[in-house]
Structures are given as C-alpha cells and as structure tokens.
Amino acid sequence: MQRPAPTTVAQHLAGTAQSWHDKVSTGGPFPPEAGRYRLYIGLFCPFAHRANIVRHLKGLEFIIPVTIVKPYPKGDDAGWPGWQFNHPSNGAHYKGADTDPEFGAQYLHELYFKADPAYKGRYSVPVLWDTVTKTIVNNESAELLRDLQTSFDTLLPESKRGEILYPVHLREKIDKMTEWMQRDLNLGVYKAGFATTQADYDVAVPRVFAALNVLEKTLAQNGGPYILGQELTELDVRAYATVVRFDTVYVQHFKCNLGMIRHDYPQLKKWLAGLYYSDGEVGEAFKETTDFKHIKENYTKSHKDINPRAITPMGPWPDVEPSQQGDDGKKVGGVKMRKVLELEKKLLMEVGFIELAREVYKELSGNESLYMWTAAGAETAWVLE
C-alpha cells in the first residue's frame, strides 16, 4: 500500500527534524483497526509512559500492541545510534525489553529512516507506527496522550469511549495547569539535571519545587483522591510520570534535592500511593506500566557526563512509599526555602489561585498586618498599607 500523503500542514516534512503529528481517525489515512498500529516505548521514559498509561486506561492493550526498547545504552551525546531492541548482535537479552517484530531492527532509528530516509531529528519514544503503510503516525507524547483517548473509540465498548481524561467541565482547569506543569515540572527536572552551569541549575531547581508545592496545595484544596478531586484526568497522568520517578531518580541523579515526595509532601505522597497501589484498572494502568529497574538503569547508565561510573543506587526503598494508617490526610507540606516560596507565589497568581498565593505571601512576609491584598482584573499585587 502506498504511504498516505500528509493531511495537514503540521504533518512531518520529509528531510527535516520535525516530528510526526498525524492521528488515527475514521475516514482519514490512518483508520482505526485492531492490530494495525504498534506503540514503541521505553519503560524508562516519562513521556512514553503517558501514552502507555492511556493505552491501559482505555483498554487498548489488545488493539495496540507495544514494543519496548532497552533502557541503555543510548549512544553518543548526539543520540547516535540511539535506543536498541533486544537483538542477537547487541549482547545479552535485557529483561522487559523486546525484539522488534516489525523489521527485526537492532535500533529504533531504523524505523525513523524507514518512515523518512532523510530524517534529521532525534530517535525518541513514544512512536505510534502503522504496520500497513510502514510509517510513523505520531511521535509526540502530548498529542498521543490526547489522541489515544478517542482514536479507537469505534472499536471500544460504550463505557470506554470519549475523552475520559479530558472531561468538558474540567478542560479550562486542565489546560491552565498543563502549561506550567509541563514547563516547570515535567521539563523542569531535565532543565535542572542537564544544566551545564551553576547559574542555570540554581534557576531550574527552585522552579521544580515551586511546582510541587502548588500541586501539594491543589490536592489538599480539592480533597483528592486525584488532582482535581474525584475525577482522574490528564493532569494525574502527566504528574504521575514525573512524580513516580522523583525520589528514585531526580533527587540524586538530577540533583533536585531540596526535598523528597515521601518526606516533604504528604498530599503528593498519598496521591502517588493511591495511584500506584490501587486495585483494578487504575492500579494496572499506573503500577503495571512502571518498571523501576528500567527507570533507574536508564538514567544512571546512559548519562555518562552526569554519572561517569554508571553505578545505579540501590535506594530509596521502597520505590513508592505506601500511605500508612494514621497519616495526617489534612497536613499540607512543601519546601519552604524562600526562593521556592517566591516562585510558588508567582505561579499561584499565574494560574489564578489568589487565596493560596495569599497564604504563601504570609509565609514570606512573616507579618501579614504590614500588607494588604489587592486584585484588579488579571493583575494582582501586594502593596504596603
């Protein structure tokens, strides 16, 4: 079958470093069919993790098979030759990784070059691959997080249809929180971990903890068990993929060590344990897609500039600390470093959490009576009485 032509201006432009942005849809060049598409992921990657969680929550495990790359080695600083599959030519079989059933490929980059022989970008996961036209449909995790919620609905029972993680009545809140969560938390840990100067690191780390502080307060305000209250949303998927890696990897490997989820964030700790140790479909979607061996060995054995001896720490233990009976469900934690609080206040104001920002300002000022809170339209400020 001939490869379909690009359907929108956003589709991949051959010979460039652009990503692929198409989607599976009825009547389009990539129609929904069971077994036609394959999702390539790494269990280590938080962005690929998002797509795999949605795949489970939607009940797509038998509609979209998955193929898992090895967590290391990755290659040189430019990412060449990139992620590998289990293959006779590259040494020992890595438990939990797969051989490539499509082409018997050794490297993920082979799929990229089959989709575009002149491709000039990076060879990342996730990749949604069409086995009929032999091309990439999409390799943008944020788009897959959204698209997989509806693309295969014609093949699913009524109870599984629709944007189950993006309900209409919560979309404004989800969109507003997604922007800063991606910027300051999901990408923020990487800005800290890959900082090449002290100044860049000093800027990045407080932003990460300001975002965690805001999530902590949001959970407390909404009462759980999920970020926006009683409904599981995309925000939980986005946050989980980073937070579940936080104590295990980001604290030591990326030097995000102002605090830990298990010690400093009781609301986030309870929320994380609730997802990870949950029974039924939720537990399967979150815990069963989380492999700490892949996660820890990827970061510690593929970043030679950060960890040149490639020694993987044993701890912390357990990987996710369970909520204990008697835990104070009303206690709100967070890192109280002044720079973090200043950024937290700014972030709370940015997203419109005015009263929460006021509470943070009280912590910063130490004397609330010296100040008053004013709000005018979109602008808010503290001023002297």
UniProtKB/TrEMBL annotation:
The protein's matches in Gene3D superfamilies, at most eight in alphabetical order, are given as:
1.20.1050.10, Glutaredoxin (3.40.30.10)
Instruction: Kindly give the InterPro entries that the UniProt entry links to this protein.
Output: Glutathione-S-Trfase_C_sf (IPR036282), Glutathione_S-Trfase (IPR040079), Glutathione_S-Trfase_N (IPR004045), GST_Omega-like_C (IPR047047), GST_Omega/GSH (IPR016639), Thioredoxin-like_sf (IPR036249)
Positions of the region Disordered?
A: 1-24
The cross-references to SUPFAM superfamilies, in alphabetical order and at most eight, read: GST C-terminal domain-like, Thioredoxin-like
According to the UniProt record, one GO cellular component term is: cytoplasm
Which segments constitute the GST N-terminal domain? 44-149
A Pfam family in this protein?
GST_N_2
User: Could you give a GO molecular-function term held by this entry?
Assistant: glutathione transferase activity
User: Hey, which family's this protein in?
Assistant: Belongs to the GST superfamily.
The protein's name in its UniProt record: Glutathione S-transferase
Q: State the taxonomy lineage.
A: Eukaryota, Fungi, Dikarya, Ascomycota, Pezizomycotina
